[in-house]
Amino acid sequence: MTWWSVVRFLHVLSAALWVGGQLTVSLVVLPLARRMLDTDRRADVLRAVGRRFGMFTGAVFLPVQLATGVAIAVHKGVTWASLAEPGYGRTLAAKLLLFCVVMAAAALHGWATGRRPGVARALAVISLVGSVGIVLLATALPAT
Amino acid sequence: MPPVEVKIGARPENRPPVPPARSRASWHVRANAVVLAWLALTIVAALAQGELPAPRWLVVHVFLLGAISTAILIWSEHFATVLLRARTPEPPRGGVARLGALNAGTVAVLYGVAVGPWPVAAAGAALVVAAVTWHAVVLAGMVRRALPGRFGHVVGWYLAAAGALVAGGVLGGLLAAQPGGGALHERAQAAHAQANLLGWVGLTVLGTLFTLWPTVLRTRISELTRRWSRAALWLSVAGLAVTVAGLLPGLRWVAVAGLVTYAVAVAVALAPPVETLRRRRPHTAASWTLAAGVVWFEVALVAEVVVVATRPVERVAAGLEPLLPLILAGFAGQVLVGSLTHLLPAVLGGGPPRFKRNAALVERGWAYRLAATNLGVPLLALPVPGPLRLLGWALVLAPAAAFVVLAVTALARTVSAGTGPAGTGPAGTGPAASGAVGTGPARAAAVGTGPAASGADAGPPSDGRRSRVSPAHVGVLIGCLLTALAVVGAMSGAGGPARTRVAPGAEQTVEVTLRGMRVQPGVIEAEPGTVLTLKVVNADAQRHDLRLSTGERTPELAPGESAVLKLAPLAGPVDGWCTLAGHRAAGMTMRIVPTTAAAAAHSAQSSPPGGDHAHTPGARLDPAAPMPSGWKPFEAALAPAPSGAEHHVEIRVQETDLDVAPGVRQRMWTFNGTLPGPVLRGRVGDLFVVTFVNDGAMGHGVDFHAGALAPDEPMRTIDPGERLTYRFRAAHAGAWLYHCSTMPMSQHIANGMYGAVIIDPPGLPPVDREYVLVQGELYLGTPDARAAAVTEGRPDGWMFNGAVAGYRHAPLTAEAGERARIWVVTAGPGTGTAFHVVGAPFDTVYKEGAYLLREDDPGGAQVLDLAPAQGGFAELVFPEAGHYPFVDHHMRRAETGASGIFKVSAP
């Protein structure tokens, strides 16, 4: 148990909140809202949920994730060049790229909400599935 | 041209509705249930490929002979009845018997080839041929009795298709009956495949498309149809006949000419459907799926022409194998699914509401199913890495399974709702219902009803037709694709270049990088005498150095620093490593090899750096230490030879991480992922058909000592992703070795590429227990260290069945008083065995094809001695309960792993 375990703990915890939050909203909140709320109230509630989740993303998730992630990478001696190497490097690179795509999808989802409902929904699901994919890649990173 | 009304799925309405629709719908429920059952079985067979006796063959034949042939029989009779306006009832007389005969024959063929004796398979093939011949006779009878009509030409296609099956089926029966290897067999197999695929399946589909395609598109039949159909039929039959006639005697260019003719015929036959297409775009599930199927047919056809044109006829059958996914899943599967999507709701009846519901049901999610299938097919056909191939299987099988479930649900609904007019609800009243299917669906299934049919009023229940693509599903699809891409990216390049070869010359400079607990390059090859200068760069985030076994060393380098080492002229191998605590153990090692020695070490190239993660250089074997908890021993108990004189096996080269010794898990080159590879067993005279697939990272081959044949073709080295068929007849009894046939064999065998073939001597008496033990050497360390040790003949340990002292940790069991027969084969590469069981002398010894000692002889034996690559067995009776060690009595080998225990309990 060193300070580095605390950093890793924060990284994993914050990721769990982000992925778990999306899963909870999609699998629990949305179906219930569809069943129990009329159209207007539902739109209000979901918009509020979305805004709160967006704030959490910008204020907590992203800063924690970027700070801890960069710290861990530096600690492990990851360099830009090493990202191209097979094994650890490429897995990490793939994970980072997927993270960027997911963040872009999430941001676009915020933009599309209210304007293009279908696109917004698709983007939300892309973000969710992509996040699960990031967890998959994270588990594939050799632990050292 | 006057509009002509022909209906598929509905009896012309001016005839009395006798027999009632109940029989027709229920016939279709039962008959198509058989098709769906075969389709489901195909999916199961594809999923269970690892467990089946002849995996590829079974999948192909369960699908084509089971699902597709049954569907052809049912539907071609149905179309013939409708198109010829025959007065025959549905099913035509004897339909049930024909269907039964075809299915019984199919089951016999499947059973006979996979398990049973060959006469069962041959009799099955004869039954299939007989059923189809009868089917052709019935169709011909209908044509003769029918009034001249516009659609009689379609039945000509069905007759030609049946003729092709008779030829292909006879060839198939001969292949099953005379399973001898050799060139003739390969040519007959190619001809068999072409006759059945291009003839029986291809001609039926082409003929059906003339009427089915416009029906599916809900437009009128092209004016071109009649004339082009006749031309195409003659051309394709001629082409096919020439193809088969060219393949059998091995005339490559005749076969190519035939295939090209057939391809031209296909183009001609597809002209009317394409003309139709210009009038009406595909817009339904059935039309898109059919179109996709036909496109794959054309792709496969072009690829086939290329395959036949570019290799000798003997290798055509093997060359066509990669095309199988295109033909099976892409073409036949999609045509079947597309047709059933359109036809099932129409024949299941029950009036417009039920038709609508059934149509909506079988079309559910069709856009995703279509996309997945057509994404999966190329993944299966192309030489892609393992995970992608797995994805391909999932993409192909999941939609197929979904369709089976949907279609079965539709059938079940029909059964439970009752199929008679009484069950049709509101539509069941009035004269309309006498048409049994009601006018709505009847019109939907009508063929060429003239302009009216394309009008809106004839429209099908279109609300259920168009599958609305939901954004959530699109999201899931894109998300999964992105993740799959990321995973492929993450896994790419494992085992990238970690070796540098230095060109000959007096002085050379090589840049050496220290990074991520690795030294790159890991191996430097140079001519002896070269003066090497190493420019060592620390590109890592922490401090490293590099020390060489010749004494040179860099100072400790901070990140970004570099140093230069100048070596003495190269005389022998030089090791290098980082001296910081723990770094050498973590893998920071390198080696400079003079090229003569490097040639021997070359084979280690494909092993990825770090493939030996668990082993640290200098670690010592500890056979007494426990094996990891998840470890399972190789099954030493030997099952009796399977029945049947023909054994189909698929052997794949795989690089697998295996627990080869307590605490040592290292990357081995294996046959089917186990060490040793699968044990093959049979009797004298049996035929073994081995499909050998190279899923490894470098060239491999295989050599079965039990077979007598010219090594040139079957033992050749094939590249990663390639496959070959190795056919041998076991002419002699014995315990035989098989091993990788690629040079340097010492390296390939030492890395785990071996296994045993057991051929029972005639009259081998049964015993209580039979075991097989394959003894081999174990080399530890980095791939390069292993390679060097193999060359020098310095094994680190010995293994029975791929684990050091494995059967000490998981003893073999028996009961006191039981007679055990222990088959032993030595793989080496360098050492044999002096096999001995402590406490139980042998009363029977059989070595290299001859008994040295028999049970009733007065003498006994203490050791079964085998040179490398020999085999035999010894028999003994365990006198009482206890623990009987078995060892290689060359005691150094026993103490470093060649030992195990029989744990004998009281009876």
From TrEMBL, chain A:
The chain crosses the membrane at residues 12-33, 53-72, 92-112, 119-141. The keyword Membrane applies. Keywords: Membrane, Transmembrane, Transmembrane helix. It comes from the Bacteria. This is Copper resistance protein D domain-containing protein. It comes from Nonomuraea cavernae.
Automatic annotation (TrEMBL), chain B:
The chain crosses the membrane at residues 29-48, 54-75, 96-114, 120-143, 155-177, 197-216, 228-248, 254-274, 286-310, 322-345, 366-384, 390-412, 474-494. Its cofactor is Cu(2+); Cu(+). Its EC number is 1.7.2.1. InterPro entries: Cu-oxidase-like_N (IPR011707), Cu-oxidase_fam (IPR045087), Cupredoxin (IPR008972), Cyt_c_oxase-like_su1_sf (IPR036927), EfeO_Cupredoxin (IPR028096), NO2-reductase_Cu (IPR001287). Residues 429-462, 597-607 have a biased composition (Low complexity). Residues 653-762 form the Plastocyanin-like domain. Residues 1-22, 419-469, 597-636 are annotated as: Disordered. Cu cation binds at H700, H705, H739, C740, H748, M753, H889. It is an enzyme of class 1 (oxidoreductase). CDD domains: CuRO_1_CuNIR (cd11020). It catalyses: nitric oxide + Fe(III)-[cytochrome c] + H2O = Fe(II)-[cytochrome c] + nitrite + 2 H(+). It comes from the Bacteria. Keywords: Copper, Membrane, Metal-binding, Oxidoreductase, Repeat, Transmembrane, Transmembrane helix. Residues 504-570 form the EfeO-type cupredoxin-like domain. Pfam families: Cu-oxidase_3, Cupredoxin_1. One of its GO terms (molecular function) is copper ion binding. Homotrimer. Belongs to the multicopper oxidase family. This is Copper-containing nitrite reductase. It comes from Nonomuraea cavernae.
